[in-house]
């Protein structure tokens, strides 16, 4: 037996471990993937197999000595995969003692961030490396995104990441939905890149209506009507621009293309276009034909968590990074945020709270019928091909635009100050319907709110605090209506609401929401889009076993704040008033 390859391998493995890795040299936890690669060359396959098995024994022994518990995932890895060397090495590294780093480019309609995510011992932490404004620019009355500038901001962030000198595993971008970039035959973007808030979408709605009936569009796509959807934007493109375009990528996927050179539209983002069929899981050829669009115009669709390949060599060289993996995680920011909701079990709903409020449930298949269409629910795709049955609601955009207006007239205030003024204002004086189309466009939001109140026979908000309180209460009551509608559509009783995203920091709105829906609210984390982006990368690379394991990481990493319902009688009375405004 001593001369058998496995016997020789075992002796060599034990000798190598005891000489180089046993305490005090650091023990099994000192091993890195490079260690395994070098050992494979030194020991050969039989020796490496034996070494992996011996590491398992050593890990158990070291944890007993230190009176610490060996991670269960490590034990499973060693038990199930002892002779699957490559997978064993990767999983040991990820689950036991490896710290892994990832980059998430998280693009919002107001600002973008490059975030470093670190996964270590079952917990994840985030570090913002670079923040930059993304807001649309008005050029000759039209709203455009400064796409080239945003790409340069990404490069600035990548250089900051390179300066960290960390072994970064991968990168992915998530962004808002519906907007897109046209590319010519050379793979270069065609300017301008339009913003979804541009007024041209009104013309697009009429053009589409003339070609396809609205019930038909919804039956194919399951996406709620919003004038900003890609379907209404693309038909307003001048024919010469579409003729020049070889392909179209949505914003987040355009950034992944910039990094990798591989053109794919990830499914969560593709589903926001109202040109994707979630039943057949492909672009809708029927809608393309009806609208006169080329079938090959939109780049192919890929699943969430697709590895696109290494970073382009010229980009990696320019920013000082190795050619790290580029992953199409969940390219839609809400898809990424929902992937990171720290929920467990069933009977929960989510609210991704930011510029937009996206409220709904995870569901196994699309819900596309007359009731869902009439209630304005959308079927966007989530991680693992789940369906995000939700409603898009104007969210903190109402506060953001009001704040911008007040700053213009010399009343610049931080959000915390606005929140204090709202708390001090009288309750339920005036309410608005956040779904009113007038609130979609920018400029002088307080006037639009005052106009709505006057037109519906209510007092106009008399102060800044009254205006902010009106927004808070109206949003909370709209969430109540939406939650009840989701319950009717699914037949599922909701028992708690998870609020994630930047809006989860707003304690007053969180409390008002708990009061309105009469259910506990669990708030946090705030950077859920970036978290989901990173966790899907980790799953794609084999560093996390499953989606449930990723959500467990979030629960282990962040403290959630719980808000319990209060003042039910007052909120019930206000809800009765509010529902009359909706009708």
Question: Describe it for me?
Answer:
The chain is of the alpha+beta class and 583 residues long. It folds into 3 domains: 5-97, no CATH class; 100-333, Nucleotidyltransferase, domain 5, CATH 3.30.420; 341-524 and 545-583, ATPase, nucleotide binding domain (Nucleotidyltransferase, domain 5). The chain is 46% helix and 19% strand. It has 23 helices and 23 strands. The strands form 6 sheets. It has a 7-stranded mixed β-sheet with strand order 19-20-18-17-21-22-23, sandwiched between helices. A 6-stranded mixed β-sheet has the order 3-2-1-6-16-15. Strand 12 and strand 13 form a beta hairpin. Helix 3 runs antiparallel to helix 4 (85-97). The termini are far apart. 48% of the residues are buried.
Count of DSSP E strands? 23
Report the span from N to C terminus: 84 Å
The H-level CATH homologous superfamily of the largest domain, spelled out, is ATPase, nucleotide binding domain
Shape: globular
Q: How many alpha or pi helices?
A: 23
Q: Do you know the CATH topology of the largest domain? A: Nucleotidyltransferase, domain 5
Q: What would you report as the Rg, rounded to the nearest angstrom? A: 26 Å
Share of residues in strands: 15-25%
Q: How helical, in percent, are the residues?
A: 40-55%
- Round the mean pLDDT to the nearest integer and report it: 89
The top-level CATH class of the largest domain is Alpha Beta
Low-confidence stretches: 22-41, 62-97
Under the CATH scheme, the architecture of the largest domain is 2-Layer Sandwich
Report the major sheet: 7 strands, mixed
Structural class: alpha+beta
Describe the strand arrangement of the main beta sheet, using strand numbers.
19-20-18-17-21-22-23
Q: How many structural domains in the coordinates? A: 3
């Amino acid at each position: 037996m001593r001369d058998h390859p496995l016997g020789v391998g075992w002796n060599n493995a034990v000798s190598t471990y005891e000489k180089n890795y046993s305490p005090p040299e650091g023990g099994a936890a000192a091993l890195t993937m490079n260690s395994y690669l070098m050992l494979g060359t030194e020991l050969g396959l039989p020796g490496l197999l034996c070494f992996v098995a011996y590491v398992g024994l050593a890990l158990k022994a070291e944890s007993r000595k230190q009176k610490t518990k060996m991670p269960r995932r490590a034990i499973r890895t060693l038990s199930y995969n002892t002779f699957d060397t490559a997978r064993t090495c990767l999983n040991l590294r990820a689950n036991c003692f490896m710290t892994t780093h990832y980059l998430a480019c998280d693009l919002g309609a107001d600002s973008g961030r490059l975030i470093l995510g670190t996964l270590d011992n079952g917990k994840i932490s985030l570090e913002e490396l670079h923040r930059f404004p993304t807001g649309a620019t008005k050029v000759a009355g039209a709203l455009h995104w400064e796409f080239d500038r945003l790409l340069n901001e990404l490069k600035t962030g990548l250089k900051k990441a390179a300066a960290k000198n960390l072994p970064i595993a991968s990168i992915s971008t998530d962004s808002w939905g519906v907007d897109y970039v046209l590319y010519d035959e050379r793979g270069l973007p065609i300017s301008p890149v339009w913003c979804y808030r541009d007024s041209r979408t009104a013309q697009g709605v009429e053009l589409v209506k003339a070609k396809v009936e609205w019930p038909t569009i919804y039956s194919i796509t399951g996406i709620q009507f919003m004038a900003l959807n890609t379907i209404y934007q693309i038909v307003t493109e001048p024919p010469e621009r579409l003729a020049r375009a070889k392909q179209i990528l949505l914003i987040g996927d355009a950034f992944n293309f910039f990094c990798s050179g591989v053109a794919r539209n990830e499914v969560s983002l593709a589903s926001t276009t109202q040109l994707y069929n979630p039943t057949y899981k492909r672009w809708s050829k029927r809608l393309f034909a009806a609208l006169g669009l080329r079938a090959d115009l939109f780049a192919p669709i890929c699943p969430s968590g697709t590895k696109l390949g290494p970073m382009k060599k010229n980009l990696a060289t320019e920013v000082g990074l190795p050619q790290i993996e580029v992953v199409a995680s969940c390219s839609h920011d809400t898809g990424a945020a929902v992937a990171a909701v720290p929920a467990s079990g069933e009977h929960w709903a989510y609210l991704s709270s930011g510029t937009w409020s996206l409220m709904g449930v995870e569901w196994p298949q699309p819900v596309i019928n007359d009731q869902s269409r009439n209630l304005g629910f959308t079927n966007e795709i989530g991680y693992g091909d789940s369906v995000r049955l939700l409603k898009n609601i104007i969210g903190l955009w109402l506060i953001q635009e009001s704040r911008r207006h007040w700053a213009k007239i010399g009343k610049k205030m931080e959000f915390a100050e606005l929140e204090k003024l709202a708390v001090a204002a009288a309750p339920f004086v005036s309410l608005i319907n956040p779904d009113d189309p007038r609130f979609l466009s920018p400029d002088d939001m307080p006037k639009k709110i005052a106009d709505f109140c006057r037109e519906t026979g209510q007092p106009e908000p008399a102060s800044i605090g009254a205006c902010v309180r009106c927004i808070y209460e109206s949003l909370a009551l709209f969430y109540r209506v939406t939650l009840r509608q989701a319950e009717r559509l699914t037949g599922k009783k909701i028992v708690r609401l998870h609020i994630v995203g930047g809006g989860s920091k707003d304690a007053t709105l969180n409390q008002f929401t708990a009061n309105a829906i009469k259910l506990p609210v669990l708030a946090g984390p705030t950077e859920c889009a970036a978290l989901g982006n990173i966790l899907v990368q980790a799953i794609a690379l084999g560093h996390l076993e499953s989606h449930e394991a990723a959500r467990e990481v979030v629960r282990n990493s962040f403290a959630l704040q719980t808000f319990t319902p209060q003042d039910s009688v007052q909120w019930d009375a206000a809800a009765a008033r509010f529902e009359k405004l909706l009708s």
